[in-house]
Amino acid sequence: MKAKKQFSVLALTASVLLTGCSLTPDTNATVSKTGFFLDTVVSLTLYGTKEEAPLNECFLLLETYESLLSRTKEGSDVWKINHSNGSPVVVSDETAQLIQTALDYSVRSDGAFDITIAPLLDLWNFKPEQHEGTVPDADQIQEALSHVDYKNVQLDGTTVTLLDPQASIDLGGIAKGYIADRLRDYLVSKSCGSALINLGGNILTVGEKPDGSAFRVGIRKPFSESDKQLETVACKDRSVVTSGTYERYFEQDGKRYHHILNPADGYPVENGLASVTILSPASTDADALSTACFVLGAEKGLGLIETLDGIEALFVTDELEEIASSGFTAYTIS
Ligand code: ADP
Ligand code: MG
After folding, report:
1. How far is CA 138 from CA 53, 144, 150, 263, in A?
2. Ligand 1 pocket residues where CB is under 6 Å
3. Neighbours of ion ligand 2 (CB under 5 A)
4. What is the model's pTM?
5. What pLDDT score does 316 carry?
6. How far apart are CA 51 and CA 31, in angstroms?
7. How many CA atoms lie within 13 A of 81 on its CB side?
8. Helix 53-69 and helix 2-19: axis angle, to 10°?
9. What are the DSSP calls for 46-73, one per residue?
10. Which of 28, 133, 264, 310 is buried deepest, with most CB atoms within 10 A?
11. Cα separation of 143 and 312, whole Å?
12. Are 166 and 119 in contact (CB under 8 A)?
């Protein structure tokens, strides 16, 4: 009995060594992998190791999550919900958990964050990188808007029912954050305690650098070259997520129309903000809050942030004025 127990412990150690992060004596060692998932460039870096196996596992996880949460992948949980015509759909635990969190953020933001925004997104049809599009007709917007209401998403355990059969959901405002958190959990479980997860600019730092210093994460200056930084923040076990008007948008008659929509009127949010950056321990929170606070605007958004422990925000206006939450400057590096 005792011998058997010893054997299983050894087997476990061996498997951790095979797939986990074995540290090299060289603290400058890093290993990275880049790919395209969730409509965006994804890059992962492990520090203090040369092990590639955990990175490859993370990319398999990305594939799994994409096949659950994508709106366009046929057969995904979200696809099934959107094609259910109001019938109950049983989804994975992960999808149910994420939808619950998204609904919680709808309540907290008084409907500013709303995953039933999908019919409006279909209408506006913003495309990544290509800044092309047409403003939809006002009556089409009204019709799509009549199906936008997070209260029509009923979640009972892992069963999702759309109370309005013409409603549909889109997790684009929260899924990257959620997936980043799941990748972090996986890496930590494999003893990879120092890593940088970048899902299309949605950043999650795992631990600290092997030399004990913090990761430095740049906050981009809106409307400028991507390497121009407005601020740099020092992060250990922190996520940094920005929502802005300058990535997914098109222009018509000299006016810019971007991809963060106001569930109150069906149009891109216009409140003088160019970007909102959130700093928080969990990336799911940073992602949902960056979108929610963008819709809420500087005043109400800041009000919400100040009620949340350990979460900071930077609001940047079109004139590049910076409005920070009370604890934000503790993270900035000048
Ligand atoms: P990105 O993911 O492009 O970096 P965000 O996190 O701000 O930026 O998410 C914007 C995405 O969120 C949109 O592309 C759309 O999928 C979705 N979305 C747009 N408006 C809302 C809203 N009011 N509530 C929830 N999700 C939204
Ligand atoms: Mg977001």
Report:
1. 52, 10, 22, 14
2. 113-115, 117, 121, 170, 172-173, 176, 243, 247-248, 259-261, 263, 287, 290-291, 295
3. 173, 287, 290-291
4. 0.93
5. 98
6. 7
7. 33
8. 80
9. EESB---HHHHHHHHHHHHHHHHH-SSS
10. 133
11. 37
12. yes
The highest-confidence range among 21-25, 81-85, 245-249, by mean pLDDT, is 81-85
Both structure tokens of 196:
């940088």
Extended strands (E) in 183-238: 195-199, 202-206, 215-220, 229-235
Closest ligand 1 atom to residue 261 Cα is 20
Contact 313, 325 (CB under 8 A): yes
Cβ contacts of residue 217 below 8 Å, gap of 6+? 203, 205, 232, 233, 235, 240
Q: Which residues of 280-304 are buried (b: 16+ CB within 10 A; e: fewer)?
A: bebbbbbbbbbbbbbbbbbebbbeb
Q: Which residue has the higher pLDDT, 14 or 48?
A: 48
Q: What is the pLDDT of residue 37?
A: 92
Tokens 């299983």 identify what position? 8
Per-residue pLDDT tens for 275-326? Answer: 999 999 999 999 999 999 999 999 999 999 999 999 999 999 999 999 999 9
> What is the amino acid identity at position 103?
L
The share of the chain scoring above pLDDT 90, in percent, equals 84
Say how many CA atoms lie within 13 Å of 245 toward its Cβ: 26
